[in-house]
Amino acid sequence: MVSLKWCEGKPEGLPGPFLGGWVFDKQRPWPEFEKELWHLPKQLLWQNEAHCFACGFGQTQEEAKANLAQLVNEEKSAVPSAPKLPLLAHRLGDIQQERQSWARLVKAALEKVEEGNIHKLVLARQIHVENEAGWNVGAVLKNLESRFGDCWIYFVRGEGGSCFLGATPEVLCQVKGRQLKTEALAGTGSVGEEVSLLHSEKDLREHRWVVEGIQKALEPFSEAVEVAPSTGIRQLPNVLHLHTPICAVLREGVSPMQVARAMHPSPAVAGIPKEEAMVFLREKEPFPRGCYAGALGWGNEEELSMFVALRSAKMYAKRAELFVGAGIVEGSCEESEWKETEEKAQALLHALGVL
Question: Global pTM?
Fold first, then answer.
C-alpha cells in the first residue's frame, strides 16, 4: 500500500534539478552522445532514509502536475522484479593481441614519463563483450546496485539504441554554497592487500601527485584548501584504492560549475601535468574515451554534485564495450597494470553476466 503526502514548497534534499555532464575530451567524443548535455527532467524520483519523493517539472504548472501524476501512478502500479540475465554473455576478441597492444601503450607511456616532463599518465582499455540473447539493462543496473551500493550508479541514453552505464567510486566534487568536498582516489591494490598498498612507494607517490594536482586546481578558486592528514583505504568488492578526503572554502562569487570544469579531467583519470597528458592520450590512445572518465551529475546555481564516470560500459542491443584504466608512473610494469585493469573490469563483467 502506497501512502502519499503532498509537500509544501521545495522538499529538502531535492537533487539538481538539472542533470547532465560532459565527455572526457571534447576533441574525441562518441557519435552517439553529445559532448555536453544538461536536462531539466519531466519527472524526478529520489529518496532519503525515511521517505521517497516524486517531483514533476514542466513549462507550466499544469504540465508539471500532469508529469508528477503520471510518475506517481506508475510507481503505485509498479510490480517489483529482479530479472536475471541469460547466461549467454561472453568476451570477444583475442586476449593475446589485446595484451600485446596494451604492452606497447604502457611502454610508450613509460618512455614519456622517463623524459621527465610528465609524472603520471592514465591509460584506458576497451573490453568487448556480446550477449546473443540481448541485454536486459534493468538487470545490469540491479546487479551493479546489489554489489556496489555505496558507489554512484548511473545510466545515460544515447542515439541508435545505445546507452552508457556504470558504477563509479570517484567523486569529482560536491558543492553546497561555498563549501566544497572532493577526494583523491588513486593507487590500486587487490582485495586483501591493504597493508601492502598502504606501504607501496609507487602507489603512495602516484597518490601524492593526484592530491597535489587537485590542490593546484582548487587554489585559484578557494580561500582555503584542506587535505586530510592521513591517507586511508577505500574498499570495493573487487579492488582497493588509496583514498584522501579534500575540502575547500570557495571564494565569494565562484560558481560550482566553474570550479568543477577546472577540476576535470582530474589527475586520477588523465595524468600530471594534465595538459601534457591529454596531448599524449590524443596521440597514442587507440580509441576515443567519449563519456568514459567524463563528468556526470546534477545541480543548480548554488549546489552541485559531480562524479567521474568510471567502471563503465557503452551498450547496444547485443554487444557492449567496457572501459577500465590504470595510472602509469615510474616503476609501473605492463603485467601489474594489466592485472589491475582486469580486476577493475570484474565490476561490469559480473553485472553483464560474463562471469
Answer: 0.91
